[in-house]
Structure formats: C-alpha cells, structure tokens
What we know:
By secondary structure, this protein is α/β, with parallel strands linked by helices. The protein contains 7 helices and 13 strands. Helix 2 packs across helix 3 (101-116).
Amino acid sequence: MPAARRLKIGLSACFSHADHARSLFTGKTLQYVEQSIAHWLMSSGAMVVMVPCPTGPTQRGDVTFDHYAQWLDALVLHGGADIWPGSYGEAPLDERWSGDRVRDDYDRALVTAFERLGKPIFGVCRGLQLLNVAFGGTLYQDIETQVPASFRHRDAASYDLNYHSIDIVQGSRLSKLYPGVERVRVNSIHHQAIKALAPEFEAEAFSNTDGLVEAIRRCDPQKSYIVAVQWHPEFHNPGSDTIDDRALLGDFLDAVAAAKKAGSPAT
C-alpha cells in the first residue's frame, strides 16, 4: 500500500530527563518510544510517528501540538512514569510516587490537541491513567498501599510475564469484540490504577481478583473515540494463552479510518 494511503498514528514519547551522571548524552533530555508498541501498531500496516515535545528550554521554531494533531490521524499514549498526584488534587503519599509532571503536561497537551479535532485516542497502561485523570478521574498512587488485599499488579522480577485474569463487562463494546468470552488473561505491569473513574468513561473490564478497572471507553457515541487498557497489548504474543489483542487494535484502527474518511469524530 502506498504511504499516502496508510494511517498515520502519533505515538507519545517517553522522557528521560537530563542527568549529568549519565555517561551518554550527559545533561541532555531524551525522548523515545519503546520498540514493541511501535511494532504492534505497524503490524496493521499503519505508519507510526513519535510526537516529540515541541516546547522546553531548547525550543526552536513554531511547531505546535496542534500541527501534529492536524497532520496525524490518531494518537496512542503508551506506558512509563507515574502520574503526578497533583494532577488529581492529591499530594504524593511517598516521594517515590511523585510522578513525572513534565510528561503529564506534555501528554495532556497532546490529548487536548487531538481531542479538539476529533482524532481517535488509544491509551496503554500509563496512557489509561493519564486519560482518566485528564477527564476528571483519580488514581490509587500505590495499589499495595491503598488496596491491601489486591493482586500484585507489578512484579519487577517477572515484569511482562506477570499475568492475571480480567472479567469483560458483558454488553460492552469490548465484549462484542470477543463474543462469548467473559474472562481473559493479560499481563500486569503497574502499581497505580484508577480509583474514581472519570465521568466521560465507562469501564469495560475489571481485574477478577480485586475489581480494579482494566479497560475504559468514552461513553458518548457522539464524541470522538477514546479507549484505553491497563495491560500492555504489545507484550502479548499471538497464539499464547493471553487475550488476542488484534481485535482491540482493529477496533481502534477502524475508528481511525472512519474518522479520517468523515473528517469528523469517530463514533
């Protein structure tokens, strides 16, 4: 397929802030994407473009978030650092959970720019948490501290091989993507989670061990498509005993194609 006909997906950047103790790129801020999620999106034939932050102390030129939102067809927010608790009106319970306020501001500016133009948005892990906060929800700063009887949702030793089951809400759009399926297995690589769900969203899946929200979707079909999952679909291997995330990716890209064709919010 010619490049001009392929969907162009903007992928948010991860930040590695300036660190004078680092031997490479000493004192420089790095912005990057994790390879697996780019490849997951490209598996569909879409083209993936990292959206660098156009603002900051070394800013040059007049490129803005709006320019990227106008040029690209959709946005994907991927994993990374904690969300700053001040984003949802709380102080950090522990200095370790102070999050990355700079990245929060960047991600929220991206969401604003793409949402304003009705471009579809898909969130992964931190992306789900950021979207929930951006639309008025709150988070557990640390699941083990605030939900003591919970499953251990992040295990540093097993990392992306840490799994648990989730229950899909029957009758939801997610359940229609997986007809006849009520419980599936996903990876779990997070220590923060949704506490109060933002009014704009409905939950489409819950952790079956502790009831934490695992998937959300924008409620209003008259507004642009926003969906997010707490797990990392890019780390699942097709043919394994985990959920087949191709249906999830297809749902997102169908919405992107429809929005592009209509030149208006996808429904």
